[in-house]
Amino acid sequence: MLRSILCALDHSDASAPALTTAADLAERVHASLHLVYVDPLFRARLAKTSGSDHRLRTRTATFVNDVLGSADAFDVLAPSIHVVHGEAPSDGVVQIATELDTDLIVVGRHDRRALDHVIYGSVSRGVVRGSAIPVLVVPSAAAERAHPSPAHPILVAVDFSEHTPEAVRLAGAMAETFGAPVELAHVVEGSQSVPVDFGGLFTLSDLRLEPDAGARDAARAGLRRVAASAGVDTAEHIVAVGAPQPELTRLAS
Fold first, then answer.
1. Which residue, of 118, 144, 170, is where some domain finishes?
2. Which residues are bridge partners to 141 per DSSP?
């Protein structure tokens, strides 16, 4: 069960969907909400000046009220506020989440230019890699979608690693909260190029072999076992073939 949720934000429009998602989750499950302000490098010194805490709280309250469309949203949520400075904001987010013993970290994903990634890196990627706490990454495009509902299934990517059961259990808890179905998906990496030599005359290198039906059936059986061991009722078990990232993106869309 989600008792405590931490949301990382930077007061930009891109972090608004993450805040909306975190606030919605906190309200639905009656969890406490913690907000972590990720301070850009060039403003870190300003944030440490006298009176900065009060100004930050005021700015955060205004941001929360504007994003959630209510003049008293900040007071109703009553979140605690923390600030992350320094060159590795993702480490600070993970550290604060660990100290607060939060159950979920919600972080937005910026669609930054390549140069910005060189300068700032990716906070969301760093949090995912460095956190032992479940992380929910909310893309900026999520602002165009409605809140989760029975019409929006929760898709769980399954790679049959040691982390799979916990991911499925968390998805099950969120699905129960939103009244949404759970779909498990596994991508069988296949369709590999295989060179074929025709008696030394020439080589055909674009022949592609697809995984056989046995591999797909085994994956479906594995998905059923995962769902049963996690105690989660699933609406569908999906097995796709190809490269995991684009296939999962396609399935989620």
1. 144
2. none
